[in-house]
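User: Structure please.
Assistant: Input sequence and predicted structure:
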Amino acid sequence: MEITGRLVADATVRTTSADKKVTGFRLAINRRYTSNGEQKEETTYVDCSFWRTDKLAPYLTKGLLVQLYGHMSARPWVSKDGEPMASLNFHTNEITLLGASHNAETRSTLPRQR
């Protein structure tokens, strides 16, 4: 599966209890459409994880436009108020940098880590 969007904050690296490092970041995916002649925009936020290496985290900064390849999963949970909730997580296998938030014409593919 492929998704494209902008990072809403700088990526972070955390270490699991099994001493594995995971790079985490959140993506905003915008969709523009027309409804009854009116332009509308809808934003979906997706939590992303990249387990292959933590060396890419410094490049994954707020506003960066990226294209990701991987698979999606849902994570159900219960809020403090007892309400059932869910969030989306995209398990990233490959990341392509499409450009910075200031419209830089940068386009590069980060190395695949297997």
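The chain has one domain: 2-109.
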